[in-house]
Amino acid sequence: MKALILNSGTGSRMGVLACEHPKCMTEISSRETILSRQLRMLSEAGITQAVITTGPFEGALMDYCRSLNLPLEFTFIHNPEYTRTNYIYSIYLAREHLDSDILLMHGDLVFENAVLDGLLAQPGSCMAVSSTRPLPEKDFKAVLRDGQIVRVGVEFFQNAAAAQPLYLLRREDWRPWLAKIADFCQRGERSCYAEKALNELDGACRIAPLDVRDMLCGEVDNPSDLAVVSAKLREVESRTVYMCFAADILHSGHIAIIKKARRLGKLIIGALTDEAAASYKRFPLLPYAERKAMLESVVGVSRVVEQRTLSYRENLEALRPDFVVHGDDWTRGFQKPIRDEAVSVLASYGGRLVEFPYARDEKYRALEARARADLSLPDIRRARLRRAIEMKGIVSAMEAHSGITGLIVENTVVYQDGGARQFDAMWVSSLCDSTAKGKPDIELVDMTSRFRTIDDIMEVTTKPIIFDGDTGGQTEHFVYTVRSLERMGVSMVIIEDKVGLKKNSLFGNEVKQTQDTIENFSAKITAGKRAQKTADFMICARIESLILERGMEDALERAFAFVKAGADAIMIHSRRKDPTEIFTFAERFRAQDRTTPLVVVPTSFNSVTEEEFKARGVNVVIYANQLTRTGFPAMQNAAKTILEHHRAQECDEQCMSIKDIITLIPEEV
Ligand code: SPV
Ligand code: MG
Question: Are 205 and 174 in contact (CB under 8 A)?
Answer without folding.
Answer: yes
